[in-house]
Amino acid sequence: MALRFEVLGRFNRARAAQLTLPHFACQTPLFMPVGTQGTIKGLTTDQLEEIGCQIILGNTYHLALRPTSELIDELGGLHKFMNWPRALLTDSGGFQMVSLLHLADITEKGVTFQSPVDGKPMLLTPEESIQIQNRIGADIIMALDDVVRTTITGPRIEEAMYRTLRWVDRCIAAHKRPHEQNLFGIVQGGLDPVLRDICVRGLVDRNLPGYAIGGLAGGEDKDSFWRVVAQCTAALPEDKPRYVMGVGYPLDIVVCSALGADMYDCVYPTRTARFGTALVPEGVLKLKHNAMVNDTRPIDPTCACMVCKNYTRAYIHCLVTKDAMGSQLLSYHNLYYMLQLSRNLHSSIVEGRFPEFVCDFLQKMFPKGDVPEWVCNAMDVAGIDISSCCSS
Amino acid sequence: MKFAVKALSSGKARAGVVHLGSCPSSIETPCLLLSTRKGLPIFISPDLLSSLPSPDSNLLQFSPLHFSEGPSPKTISSIGGLHQMVGLHEYGFAAVARDSIQCLPECGSTNKTGASFETPCGRRLIKPVEYMEMITSMKPNLWATLADEVPAWANNKRNKTSVDRTVKWLDECIARSPAGGAVFGSIVGGSNIEERKRCAQEIIYAGYWIGGFGLGESMEERPSLLNAVTDNLPKDWPRMICGLGLPEEVLQGVAAGVDLFDSAYIYHLTIGGFALTFPLDRTEKIDYNYQLSDQGSDRTKINLRATVYRKDATPIVEDCCCYTCQNHTKAYINHLLNVHEMLAQILLEIHNTHHYLGFFRSIREAIKEGCFEQFQKKFVQSRREHLAADVVSV
């Protein structure tokens, strides 16, 4: 165990905490930008510190291909390689395998696939995944899990859940740096509450430093999504961090935080920036739209970031999708927005005004009171009264 | 805008000082105008711009044509002008129709009504009226009048036409000149020395923009063409030029008495994955023991895509104090280039700009010490000697 998790405030299931990792003391709930290939697209480490980024996620699959984990190790680890002084988390490589490679074949041994760089056959085992992550040196590493899409049904889901538990033991055995890197287990089980329950209990038995809820954020309906999160957060230990992988949209993060989750990651804010879309309290703002051509307002008048303080929608409009600077400025704003959301979640819980924050958030996003039913149901379970935001 | 010559080296090179309203400090000349796209550097975001040496890096160049498909002049005016729009209040902006990277003069399509350019939005014909509408809304610190530029091989008739049009458009631009903003009269004339002289004599204004260079004239013919212009310009007014980007070309411009330069060099280096490494220390001896890698490296620059840098954990230039060299290694940039990450260009543009600004500083120091001619000779010679050493060693 190489972390400390201290809850500083609560509201029902929601909690605000300090997560102390080897490289940085973080405040949760928190959002982790995704730095796929050892960089957040278009931003420097200075800028990331400036906007308050605490943890960055690196993709093991991509880094193992280029520049390779051996090279990163030789140069002193990923922190040193990219010059990021704060915390890092690496995923196991499993998700990319499934999402990127149609020819991936999953067996008890591991995942076999064809390297996209040179076509060589490769095998990613739990042991290999942990070895690669040990070399990369992130503060948090993820166990290799058997991921299945939530849109799949049948015995495959059960098989994947049990295999995930068997693989986590192999990951634990292979982990050479437990005092510097925290191995998180990932709860699988599809949308089946029985399977999820078995997986949670199995992982909790292994007494890991932290737990992730995996296999979601892949196209399942929102009603199923929140129910799985709610079930898992209720069953996972109070005193350890809970990470919902691949989430996501600001609304999803608020709901999951209300249900007791602490950590999130998603490519959405930076990816959508590169397509000219900004995140704002009302939802999204499409800066490519012709309506923006002469709009002299800032992207978000309530945002304190460098982009909103200096630039108009009209100017950003003429940059987006045409100039690299457009992507950079929008990525900067979108990440600032997500990190500010994290800060707001943390402080509103600590300061005892979480329900007010949630209502304010929902009112801005749904000014007509048309809050989606799944959100209302989830908030009900979370014990947060949002009747003032709902018209029905 | 205020300009004064402070020192002369024997010959025509001069060191001066420019003071612009929006910049808090004066800027020494000869100086480099940083290239921008729509008012911001191509890769360096505004918050990183301040990490470059100041006030050297405070002069930026743009072309009004960058905005041909952007916010209307009316919108730009309502925002308050270019400085406001791009959030660079303490920087100086120079507006020139031509930008050596992406708005290139297309003299075949230029006609009596306006100048034609190849731009990212296609071929554009811009008339003096339209040009001045943009200048008025953007409020740059200084701007060049619209010119009809022709390359060195244009015939005499075409040359003469370009001078006639440029002088006519000068009058039309000045007639619509906004209050504030220094006017640089444009001087053209192709490779015809007589036409250049005629143009230079006809135009008398607050500063001069020298056009028609960097369009195909040779290194050998350039000095006489430059001198034909600068010999006929009043000494106390600043001279700006476009198209002399490479170090040797800049030195030719300085030798002829030019004060302000744009350059596409940094951009092309950056997108090619190159980083400048040539020594800025003027007292350094030529080092023949320098090991050359065989992948496009010379004493001037290195190509960070080369596999030789995969594990190189040193900065691009050992004692460079730019953001890139202070924070990152060649190995990291090599990786970023390999995986096509935008951060590579950001870091390279920062370093290359920093380094090139250092080159301009060396030029100014040499002029002030009265030894510019030696500096120019030694610089050019050392580059050629390395090439000669290469040939011998192969």
What does this protein structure show overall?
The complex is a heterodimer of chains A (392) and B (394). Chain A is an alpha/beta fold. Helices cover 42% and strands 18% of the residues of chain A. Chain A has helices at 45-50, 60-65, 69-74, 78-82, 94-100, 126-136, 155-174, 193-205, 222-235, 250-258, 268-274, 306-310, 313-319, 324-350, 354-365, 373-382; strands spanning 4-11, 14-20, 25-28, 30-33, 55-58, 87-90, 105-106, 111-114, 121-124, 140-142, 182-187, 210-213, 242-244, 263-266, 277-280, 283-286. In chain A, strand 7 (105-106) and strand 8 form a beta hairpin. Chain A is globular, with a radius of gyration of 21 Å. The termini of chain A are far apart. Chain B has 394 residues and is of the alpha/beta class. A nine-stranded parallel β-sheet of chain B has the order 4-15-14-13-12-11-7-6-5. In chain B, strands 1-2-3 form a three-stranded antiparallel β-sheet. Chain B has a three-stranded antiparallel β-sheet with strand order 8-9-10. In chain B, helix 5 runs parallel beside helix 6 (193-202) and helix 8 (247-255) runs antiparallel to helix 13. The longest helix of chain B has 27 residues, at 342-368. The termini of chain B are far apart. At the A-B interface, helix 1, helix 12, helix 13 and helix 14 of A face helix 1, helix 2, helix 11 and helix 12 of B.
Short description:
Chain A is an alpha/beta fold and 392 residues long. Helices cover 42% and strands 18% of the residues of chain A.
Topology:
The complex is a heterodimer of chains A (392) and B (394).
Chain A: E1 4-11, E2 14-20, E3 25-28, E4 30-33, H1 45-50, E5 55-58, H2 60-65, H3 69-74, H4 78-82, E6 87-90, H5 94-100, E7 105-106, E8 111-114, E9 121-124, H6 126-136, E10 140-142, H7 155-174, E11 182-187, H8 193-205, E12 210-213, H9 222-235, E13 242-244, H10 250-258, E14 263-266, H11 268-274, E15 277-280, E16 283-286, H12 306-310, H13 313-319, H14 324-350, H15 354-365, H16 373-382
Parallel strand pairs in A: 4-14, 5-6, 6-10, 10-11, 11-12, 12-13, 13-14
Antiparallel strand pairs in A: 1-2, 2-3, 7-8, 8-9, 15-16
Chain B: E1 2-8, E2 14-19, E3 27-29, E4 31-32, E5 34-35, H1 46-49, E6 59-62, H2 73-79, H3 82-85, E7 92-95, E8 104-105, E9 115-119, E10 122-126, H4 128-138, E11 142-144, H5 156-175, E12 182-187, H6 193-202, E13 207-210, H7 222-230, E14 239-241, H8 247-255, E15 260-261, H9 265-271, E16 274-276, E17 301-303, H10 323-327, H11 330-338, H12 342-368, H13 372-393
Parallel strand pairs in B: 4-15, 5-6, 6-7, 7-11, 11-12, 12-13, 13-14, 14-15
Antiparallel strand pairs in B: 1-2, 2-3, 8-9, 9-10, 16-17
Helix pairs in contact in B: 2-4, 4-5, 5-6, 6-7, 8-13, 9-12, 11-12, 12-13
